[in-house]
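pls ignore typos typing on phone
nicotinamide-adenine-dinucleotide + seq
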Amino acid sequence: MAKTSLDKSKIKVLLLEGVHQSAVDNFQNAGYSNIERLTTSLSEEDLIEKIRDAHFIGIRSRTQLNERVLSAAERLVAIGCFCIGTNQVDLPAALKLGIPVFNAPYSNTRSVAELVLAETIMMLRGIPEKNARAHGGGWLKSASNSFEARGKTLGIVGYGSIGAQLSVMAESVGLNVIYYDTITKLGMGNARQVGSLQELMARADIVTLHVPETRSTTWMIGRDELALMKQGSYLINASRGKVVDIEALAEVLESGKLLGAAIDVFPVEPKGNDEEFVSPLRKFDNVILTPHIGGSTVEAQENIGVEVSEKLITFSDNGTTITSVNFPEVALPSHPDKHRLLHIHANVPGVLSEINRVLGNEGINISAQFLQTNEEVGYVVIDVDKAYGEQALNALREVNHTLRTRVLYSQADSE
Ligand SMILES: NC(=O)c1ccc[n+]([C@@H]2O[C@H](COP(=O)([O-])OP(=O)(O)OC[C@H]3O[C@@H](n4cnc5c(N)ncnc54)[C@H](O)[C@@H]3O)[C@@H](O)[C@H]2O)c1
Ligand SMILES: O=C(O)[C@H](O)COP(=O)(O)O
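k done
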């Protein structure tokens, strides 16, 4: 019988927050059967209990993998964020523990861009208030504060994948596009980059935010920035909840300065669909409130399920870390007749030579080797003759500064 690294039925895959069934199918088709899939996120204490025996964890934007949780994850081999954002994971802590993190950087880009364009048009027409009035038995037939999109200026903050895709779609309905980004970027179509956030806030009829959550974007839109916005303008946030000071936004809505807002993400979000959503924005009929569903389409979730599970399976089976968001990227071509050793170590001088020395002392010949380092860790994949799997692994465990090491046994090997 072929000997594999660790019996795949013993490898525990924990999927939270309703990760799509396509991920489960992918793991099963690759031979992994110990899969637990939950539909919600977990409290920190429950998460610590659950993650203890997991080899792989799949999360979305709600699950907080902080240092405390990660320290309890003694068997964890890799993390999959089944979404774009990775701010919910303490990436430096994961790196120091030798745990690579993967995500799906493009699979829901289109879904977010479509939603934002739709919200832009709906808000310009005053649909949220008219809809609310009709649901209450009223009839608000009026052209006042109801505008075409054509000729209005859309200001995009963060001109990355979503911002740029939105830019193209917005121009196709006649919006003029300006954008602000910390990096100089070539605009799509006729879109023009502006020199400062302040300039964008002052010039746009609709401001939409598409930045990641980082130190520089946390509370980036507060009282001062909102004060710069035009009388009768609109704000859209489908990025991260902590980018906008919600209390300050509620104040400008109350004052009538903004004609509307569309908010998909919040500083505090319910853990699941059964928990109450609390926000000072609930009282405004001219605000579209959506439960963080920018990327929640059937198409996006299915694609994300496939994409991220594939990355986790490839890492599990071959040690490949290409596209990891925190880890040195390594992909050694596969040599099915060899055993593969994976060695993750603190990035200090001399570790590779020590690895090669201990393997040499054991008389182990190296067939192929690929090392990459980043500021914290080094990751080396080594193929050795299949006579030496266990022996080589034991030798590697003795190397100073080792964080984690694994052997992937040759599929050509027989016990
Ligand atoms: N609502 C949702 O369901 C949903 C779905 C997908 C993504 N998102 C969020 O949207 C964010 C953006 O996604 P993306 O794929 O376009 O990311 P991206 O990395 O492709 O683009 C982000 C852009 O923001 C820019 N940026 C970073 N800091 C900035 C700052 N201080 N000021 C101005 N620009 C800055 C970057 O240079 C980059 O161009 C994600 O990080 C995620 O948090 C939300
Ligand atoms: O980062 C993302 O891709 C979005 O915020 C979507 O997150 P979700 O998977 O929790 O909907």
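The chain has three domains: 1-103+297-327, 108-289, 330-410. Residues 298-318 form the longest helix (21 residues). more later
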